[in-house]
Design brief:
- 4 copies of one chain form a homotetramer.
- By secondary structure, chain A is α/β, with parallel strands linked by helices.
- Chain A has one domain (about 5-200): Flavodoxin domain (Rossmann fold), CATH 3.40.50.360.
- Chain A has 9 helices and 6 strands.
- The first copy, chain A, has helices spanning about 15-30, 45-50, 55-60, 70-75, 95-100, 105, 130-145, 155-160, 175-200; strands at about 5-10, 35-40, 80-85, 115-120, 145, 170.
- In chain A, helix 7 (about 130-145) links the parallel strand 4 (about 115-120) and strand 5.
- The longest helix of chain A has 25 residues, at about 175-200.
- Chain A is globular, with a radius of gyration of 16 Å.
- Chains in contact: A-B, A-C, A-D, B-C, B-D, C-D.
- At the A-D interface, helix 7, strand 5 and helix 9 of A face helix 7, strand 5 and helix 9 of D.
- Chains A, B, C, D: Belongs to the WrbA family.
- Chains A, B, C, D: InterPro entries: Flavodoxin/NO_synth (IPR008254), Flavoprotein-like_sf (IPR029039), Flavoprotein_WrbA-like (IPR010089), FMN_Rdtase-like_dom (IPR005025).
- Chains A, B, C, D: GO terms for molecular function: FMN binding; NAD(P)H dehydrogenase (quinone) activity.
- Chains A, B, C, D: This is NAD(P)H dehydrogenase (Quinone).
Chain lengths: ~200, ~200, ~200, ~200
């Protein structure tokens, strides 16, 4: 795992998925990942919309130094963890927009065999957490990525809400230690499978 | 709504979805439905499997007088509310088996324009509640049914867990008043849309 | 149906979904719809990306006078038909971006009871046509919209590819009469259910 | 790959998915798989229903010597390829019933890290091929399986219908060489990833 490269790609308006992404990066380091990058997708919302929402504005400012994800980052990564809020059961346009620009990489086969899992949040306990992850995983199938969903491969998943597709939370609630533990397990699993795949690809 | 016929079709191993079905029937009566039938799908599990699980056995005995749903019931109903546990994000084979027998009705167009919504349960808070409802709604599209998911059309939905696809619960936890209220709203909405469709079809 | 208002909302890069949208509007008029508007979602792609793709540029110019959809249009419409290409099994960011701006309407309950169906295209025969429609319908459940998928309610659906979720085509192939007929049936059905719902809501 | 064990698990009423399963086994042998078993799921339909359908009866008789899949086979396999017709966008109850019996294996963690992909058929060109594979893959996430969907990792996928989730066909049409080639690629890819995972697990 020492040479594995992990991209944690997130979109966050008010900080929930940024926190999940931070925890993912921390867990990756604890697992001895080679390199890890935390990367935000480009904001599309007009400045005025952001300015009218105090929490959104505050978060944008607080993360202004987080680098924006590029196509090069996708090519660079062996494994990817996405973290994204729902938008009515689908991905936010900010993340979708980034995904829409990957046609060139896709066409040249450079997205195949990325090992991927994802985390999410919604405003309600059952507000699209499961369906949003399903939407992202559909796209991963198109890429030829290898999905490393956590399933129920550790008790941390049960304790963190029991979402087998990926860690999910209710936005606005305090993020708990049980969530952090579930993130840690999901990351560990993604890296482990990523390591197997990377080794296989190199032989 | 006074001439509207509602079928509440459920599968339940240990009682959660039976309780939801009962609440749905009660709500339907409170809304002045014409007729309502609570109907279970046929059990497929071998007797031995049931006998080995005390709660399952108890529930089977407690509901032995609930009529099994037939194809005639489907034809009879103007509106249908399903209640079903998840099986790894999909429908239990007991319910799927019933659905698999509807080919003749489907072919003759008799399933079109049924107004439908669904409720569900899983063992974990995020254990397939959303994805199971999505699986059932896929089938409803094939039928030409009209899906009356609750969305967020009443505050009872937010208070009952905020699942816009249908009421969902964690099995084994106490079913709460907020859940019962959410069921009542979902039923009211399904009947209302069912009434509009029935009236439209009769003109 | 004479007072029913239909919005045909589409995104199209090179014309396939624009054609489907045109056919939908034509069918709506043939069915005596009250009013119909064909509306495009705002383009997000940078001008350079468009300029580098001859077909895309040509289509943008050819449709420069088609009005862009606004939130007022959503509020105005009784029924909505979406037409959109896939992006790896999900919605293009252009359409997602428009959907992401509907929070205010959603919160005030103004998206509930819209009667909706959708059409789609992909580059391959099985390139996400079904999954893209499922993604859009998930969002419709969140809105509290009423989905009027065609199912198999007319032989035109079988002849047009047999997609029960909505008309779908392979982009780049000639659009056929059988497709046009399937669009006509889907529109007729959406308007019919839209009429029932509108009447019900007014009583 | 020489020690890799592959289970090809299928349900077939009239032979389409049996043919796909046979092709998968042939491809696995051509790729030097260690062992491969072609296994059918138990039929649930009553004898009378089968007797009334000449093609179904003929197929049941023709495959009476194909062994039925058991839980031991699941435990034995390193990789699994499923082949199944759609039932209104979901799995047939026959396959669902088998899946429903895996709770014990799941609970003891023995389904985790199986490398899985799937193939399907429907009566119409867009009759649930994509959504059926999505339903099965949801279950695989619950298992903690690793999904090796083909994506667009070879031109055989484009030529075989371009379904990135898995090979899919229209039942009743002649199965083509392009389909066989797509099956061969999907199998090769599943085995390759299966080999990487098996090696990783053994270290």
């Amino acid at each position: 795992m020492k040479d594995l490269k992990l991209a944690v790609i997130y979109y966050s308006a008010t900080g929930t998925n940024y926190q999940l992404a931070q925890w993912a990066a921390e867990a990756a380091k604890n697992n001895g990942v080679g390199e890890v990058k935390v990367l935000k997708v480009k904001e599309l919302a007009p400045e005025q919309a952001i300015a009218e929402n105090k929490d959104w504005k505050k978060h944008v400012e607080a993360t202004k130094n987080v680098p924006e994800v590029s196509l090069d980052d996708l090519e660079w990564a062996d494994a990817i963890i996405f973290s994204t809020p729902t938008r009515y059961g689908n991905l936010p346009s900010q993340l979708q927009q980034f995904i829409d620009t990957t046609g060139g990489l896709w066409f040249s086969g450079k997205l195949a065999n990325k090992v991927v899992s994802a985390m999410t949040s919604a405003s309600n306990p059952h507000g699209g957490q499961e369906t949003t992850l399903m939407s992202l995983y559909k796209t991963m199938h198109h890429w030829g990525a290898i999905i490393a969903a956590p399933g129920y491969t550790d008790k941390a998943i049960f304790e963190g809400g029991g979402n087998p597709y990926g860690v999910s939370v209710t936005a606005g609630e305090d993020l708990k230690d049980t969530t952090k533990n579930a993130v840690a397990h999901q990351v560990k699993r993604t890296l482990q499978i990523g390591g197997w795949v990377k080794k296989g690809l190199s032989e």
